[in-house]
Please model this.
Amino acid sequence: MSGPTVLTAAFRRRLFGLVATASLLVAVAPPAVYFVQKRNELLALARGDAARIASVVTASIQARPVLWRYDATKLSERLRVDGFGRRAVFVVHDAQGTRVPLDLGGKAPPTAVLWGRAEVVIEARPAASVWVGADAGELLRATGLLAFVSTLVAAVLAALLYGVPIQAIRQAEGRIGSLVDELSLSLREDERKRIARDLHDGASQALTAARLHLRALGKSLDEQRSRERLDQAVAHIDEAIDEVRRSTTLVTPSLLGEVGLAEALQRHTETFATAAGIDIRYERPKALPPLSPAIEVACLRIVQEALHNVVRHSGAKRAFVTLLADVPARKLVLSVRDDGRDAGGPEGNGLGSIRDRAASLGGAATFSSSDRGSRWDVEIPLP
Amino acid sequence: MSSPQTLSCGPSGLRSLAAVVVALLLAPACQGDPPPPPSRPAALSSPDLQAPLVVMGTGAMTPLARRLAEASLADGGANVVVEDSVGSGGGIRAVADGAIDIGLLSRPLGPREQGLGLVVMPIAKSAVVIAANPRVQATSVGSDELVALVRGDRITFADGRPAVMLLRDRDESANLALELQIPALKAAREAAYAGSRLRVLYYDEAMIEALSTSSGALGVIDLAIATTTRTSLKVLALDGALPSREDIASGRWRATRELSFVYRADRADRVATFVTYVRSPKGRAVIEGMHAVPLPLTPADLEP
Model:
């Protein structure tokens, strides 16, 4: 797995298009459907009115084929009686396209007009044209309001459809990353155990055998000087054996499984203090909540690394290791400080290793240093 | 992670589908009826010189015009056909278009009508009166009573019998003529239009029919029409007075209006015969028989 965001990013790309399309449909479709439906109703109404007016005009033309167009008064009266005065706009043109001046109440023409038209045909010849203009202003206002509401709904829907799965994916991805890190840590520890076992079974055994042979050889030497040189060689081999044993002990935190983190740290600090020749004070909690092997190993390694760097960089005589479990805050607090010189930045003081270990468990590590000593503070969230 | 191809409809496909759906939904909205084009000027007609004169216009003058046409033909004069009324405005437009020869007016030309090159010839002066259904018992109506009836403050005659006030349309010149005699009627009439309480008639024939058939009905109408219609209407005295010929001529009866012919200057020759007849003593006699005063006035018209 190349990173914790790969899955999330891939899902984002694919989900965005789907959500955008769905949201567009939700935002556009309802007002569009409403507009078209109501517009068609309005248009049908206007066309119906135009057809009825056309029938009135037809009667006028049939009664007075030439002069009907001058009798706007009677035509207007007929239309008023029929209730057309409540509609919006009426226009009648004679066959030559000249408007017949109707008077149906003086209603101001609306700003948005939907026209319906009807033709007057007498003896297969066009005799007049009728237009009825319906007021479309209310339709436009209602459509605009519906578009506003549906856009809001679409926005909420998009947020839910996009945000909820992405959040779930992100959480799952984080969990996968943690599991992978734990697995990686476990694999590294298994590898370390294997190396330690190989060292113990291989190099340690060979060195022990070499020591035995040299001892036996020494007993057979008569010269004092040769015996002294042989003793030095044996001493070096003893050092090598001790070093191998220390390394395998460092690499294999098998103690954790036997005695737990608090006791393992106790023993390590005591062993290290003796080996390094510094005073290490260790403060431990009375009890710890159940911890995962990954957390215990990480804490042990962090203390090992930090103490190693105390000896290497600070020249301190005293070191302090503190382990606390802040159960209400659900976190484990570990600190390693010394009273040595200013050790500089964290880069040469185990930055990568300690921060990586803390981060792999969802925690954080900070380093500070002054002429009064250096300090590592690590917080790891409890499961 | 599954590839896009494993989805039944990938993101780009759904986008295309959405576009098609929207286009289909909106497609009907793109259709519709185009708006009316600008009005074209009326095509001018040329008269058929062999055809009778065609006369048309205000209903206030139509009965008089028909009487004059009948008399003219009987005396061997011009052959004139008087069409049903279309109002003064309709008559003016028909004359301007050349569709008719003479228009009948009961009002002056408006500002836009004055530029049409038309000739206006006053023919008669007619009184505007209050006429009622023949079965109405009242013989007179007062000015205040009339205003109250129009305004809706009362719905009965002075004798307590039901009164049904009928109105003419707002632009009718008879209203304006009566308001010369009773100025308070204007505001009362506007209030009646605004309240939509009273029935409004838009032409003289409709008023005649309504007055004839509606019990208790009364309304404004031309004296000539009221006295010559087939169904006799009852003319009510206004403040106890009925207009005499001399009252109309002198202006004592203020509710009068001028009735005129209007014709195109280029048809003056064609209409001259009929116009001359109308202004002749015989024509004037016809006008007087219709309870109108012929124009121009003569000194005799002013004699009591």
The CA atoms of residues 204 and 241 of chain A lie 6 Å apart. The two ends of chain A are 23 Å apart (CA to CA). Chain A touches chain B through 49 residues (CB under 8 Å). Strands of chain A lie at 89-94, 99-100, 113-122, 125-135, 279-283, 318-326, 331-338, 364-370, 373-381.
